[in-house]
Amino acid sequence: MSEKTLIAVWGSPNSGKTTTTIKLAQAFAAQKQNVLVICCDSLCPSVSTIAPQGAAGHSSLGELLSLPTLSQEDLLRYALPLDVSPRIALLGYKKGDTTFTYAAYNRDRVVDLLTLARHLADVVLVDCASFLSADPLSTVALELADHVFRLHSCDLKSLMFYASYLPLVSDARFRRASVLPVLSNVKLEQDSREYSQVFGGIQVTLPHVPQLEQQAAAARLLDDCTGKDAVAYQKALQQLLSQLQSPKPKATPIPPATSSTSFRNIASLLQRVWPKRRGGKK
Length: 282
Ligand SMILES: Nc1ncnc2c1ncn2[C@@H]1O[C@H](COP(=O)(O)OP(=O)(O)O)[C@@H](O)[C@H]1O
Ligand SMILES: [Mg+2]
What we know:
By secondary structure, the protein is α/β, with parallel strands linked by helices. The chain has one domain (5-254): P-loop containing nucleotide triphosphate hydrolases (Rossmann fold, 3-Layer(aba) Sandwich), CATH 3.40.50.300. The chain is built from twelve helices and eight strands. α9 links the parallel β7 (178-186) and β8 (204-207). The chain starts with a strand and ends with a helix. Magnesium ion (MG) binds next to α1.
């Protein structure tokens, strides 16, 4: 992996973008890399839930994006360093922010922000918002990233999300990155094989780990993930990291959501699901 890597973590709502981003940040930090995590979600600002102690007085990413000019010093001033993980710093919206709190920013501002971020950190991880139409920061991160981890969950909502949103990222400007589709938060009882087929190109599966769910619920995502349950998860994370170390793969073509194959698969999956539900109502 080259230095100064920009990785965008994107996916359907609730697919595990924030959880995965933080666990990736910890894995990079363990390799002695300095990591800047940019949390784009302005709908449910996440910094306070990741680092509740430090977040009380932290400055908002929204304010940074609306400064008249941007410099590396500004980024350093707005980034929240973590006591527990000195190699990781967070940039994100603060508790109480809404999309109306700050002035609108444009594409050039995001390009500046991401360029400066790449100069500051060894790895920049962007925890993207699912809804690109409402978030220029996530959209431009997907354009400029070296790698995109695209998170899918094993549920119909995720299928429907991608049916709607994949066409938005099928444009040539999104082809710079290598895209690694990942099945995320997969429970034992879920039919991951079927969903892998439907989504296509799944290379890594991140298993559901109850400990991670508890960490997220208790605002302790920065705790280590240990124990038997976590072994498979850590292995999958390492698999993700190893994809970055291999020579940069050719960008994975994004299957057009309107292709007959993907819709045939989705339709057959829906057919499999609905009869069961109807049966349940009898
Ligand atoms: N691998 C996992 N194991 C257990 N729970 C997970 C895992 N990944 C995500 N979750 C849980 O799923 C929920 C959504 O995760 P989150 O990272 O907030 O998603 P997103 O950022 O995509 O909205 C959280 O409750 C989180 O704890
Ligand atoms: Mg999130």
